[in-house]
Each structure stands twice: as C-alpha cells, then as structure tokens.
Amino acid sequence: MKKKWLLFSSFLILVLSGCDNPLLIFDPKGPQAKTISDTILFSILMMAGILFVVYVLFTFMLVKYRASKMDESYEPPHEEGSKWLEITWIAIPVIIVVILSVVTVRSTTDVESTPKAYANETPLIIYASSSNWKWHFSYPEEGIETVNYVNIPEDRPIEFRLYSYGPISSFWIPQLAGQKYAMSDMVTKIHLAADTPGSYMGKNSNFSGKDFAHMEFEAQVLTEKDFDEWVKDVKETAPALTEQEFNHLLEPGVLGRKTYKSTHLEFSPAPEGEHAGHQHGGDMEMEMEMDMTHESESDIQGEHHHN
Fold it and tell me: What is the C-alpha to C-alpha distance for residues 199 and 151, in angstroms, rounded to an integer?
C-alpha cells in the first residue's frame, strides 16, 4: 500500500512539474495570459476549498454517526427536518455558482478586448492563417510574411486575425493568450500583449489531421528596435511571395520556417469585409445560382405555353 502511494505521489509531482517544463499557462508573460492564469488558479483553489469542507464533513459524519452495538429492540429517536439546514445547503451551491460566473464573465470580457494598459495604443495587426499543417503570418502594415514563426514587439498591443485554408485549427500561445479557433470563410480575433522579450511556444490545439502535432510555431517577442531592424532586414533580403509559391505552401505537408517580403493578402485576401462569408469559390456558386434561376424561368415559360 505504501509503495502504491509513493508511485501515485511521484506521478502527481511529475505531471504538475511538467518534466522540468512547468505548465506554461501558469507562467504568463503578458496581461491577457495573466488574467487567464489568475482565473484558473482562483477556480482551482475554490474547488479545493469545497472539497476540503466536504471531506471534513464526511469524516465527521462517519465518526459521529457510525453504527454501534445496540440492542436489537433499539429504535432511534424521530428527528424532524431542519429548515435552516435545507436553506444552507441550497444557498451555498448557488453562491458558489454566482461567484464563479461573475469571475468567468469578467475575465472573458478582459481577454476578448485590447489589454487595458494599452487601450489608447494602435495595435499591430497580424493575419494568422492555417493550412495543412502550417501557420502563415501576414503583416499588412509592414508588407512581409512568415511561415511557422511570428515576431512581435514588446509592450505593444497585438491583434491577430485568424482564419483557415483548411480544417478548423486552434491558435494558442499559452504564455501570451488563450486559444481561439481559425476557420475558413470568416475571421476571428485574439488580442494580446507581451511585456517580456523572449521565445514562446505557439501551437494548434485542435486536431486537424495526421500532422497537426507538428503545427507548432515560435512566437518571439523583440524589443521595438530589434523588431524594426528585423522588418527592415526582411524587406532587403527575403524573396517576394508569389501566388504560385503560396499555392505550393497550401499543399498538405510539414514545412520549416520561411520568410517573404510581400504577403498573400494581395492576391488571396482574408475572408472579411467584402470578402467575408462563403466567397471562396464565389464564381462557381454564382454560376450555379444563375443556372437554377434560368431553369426556373424555363419551367414557368413551359407551363404558360402548355396552358
């Protein structure tokens, strides 16, 4: 028995420590990630407190009301229900749910908007699109694009605009923000900011095919000076991204890092604004609608002629 407890304890410590790699969500490097981490920790502590009270009461009841060797003719005294006890055990769960609901709604509202400390600053917009099985990062303001890595400046709000050229993917940088889905024919947004330069892991946390586990990318936070120098270097040394090259990138497969001095937004814009909705393949849909309209008109004319 003692050996089993030792094995269980070792396993628990191993899981919580992450094998020398602590759980990234509990090591936030930005305000949005800090809000998420605090909310999770608060929920864990609250649930642990509830379990502690339940186990204490359970142990108390077992000891106090355990069966004893009484005479067979013994009849326990009749006890009426307690109105206050019933009110108490109904009110406590309601209070718990209300507290968790308020905390969750407030934290969700915070992480869905620009970080409060950067509310008056213009965010850097980056389009993050997924394909099987890679990430494409387009910087429309800078006119550059990267594959499977993204560089961002510190102490500046970032607005990622997410969409997909394949199945639904989940964009997630645990130390900077929560996850959000990237879907075809629509754009979702995720706001974040980084207050500590460094390299952080990003990934796809939604199953999207056989190589989805390889959809990891590096999110590198640079100082503003280093970021500007990097952009300048890309514009001077990287090749341009052509439509033919981009179509090749969209083919299913695993790739390393790539850098371009132009973006695919020029010839394959994100599904937003006038390109929103089911616009990919719009010509074919329009032709189908025209054919159906033409067939309907022919049927009507045929009925009139018959009459």
Answer: 9
Total domains in the chain come to 1
Whether 22 is in a domain gets the answer no
Q: Is residue 30 part of a domain?
A: no
**Residue 163: CATH number of its domain:** 2.60.40.420
Give Cα 143 distance to the centre of its chain. Answer: 26
Which structural domain range is residue 124 located in?
118-269
**Cross-strand partners of 149:** 218
Which residue pairs from 107-111 have beta carbons closer than 8 angstroms and sit at least 24 positions apart in sequence? Answer: 107/35, 107/36, 107/38, 107/39, 110/32, 110/35, 111/32, 111/35, 111/36, 111/177, 111/178, 111/191
Query: What per-residue confidence (pLDDT) applies to 167?
Result: 93
Mapped onto helix, strand or coil, the DSSP state of residue 187 is: coil
Which tokens hold the place of 261?
């001095």
Report H helices in 148-258.
224-237, 243-250
Please check whether residue 277 lies inside any domain of the structure.
no
Structure confidence at residue 4 (pLDDT)? 52
On whether residue 297 sits in a domain, the answer given is no
Residue 262 tokens read as 């132009």
What CA–CA distance (Å, rounded) separates 21 from 37? 16
Rounded to the nearest angstrom, the gap between the alpha carbon of residue 301 and the centroid of all alpha carbons in its chain is: 54
Residue for token digits 């995720």?
A: 190
For residue 150, CA distances in Å to 31, 109, 135, 237 come to 19, 26, 9, 17
pTM (predicted TM-score): 0.78
| Exposed/middle/buried for residue 52 (C-beta within 10 Å: 0-12, 13-18, 19+) | exposed
Quote the pLDDT of residue 171: 97
Residues of the chain with pLDDT under 70: 1-22, 277-307
- Look at residue 76 in the predicted model and tell me its pLDDT: 74
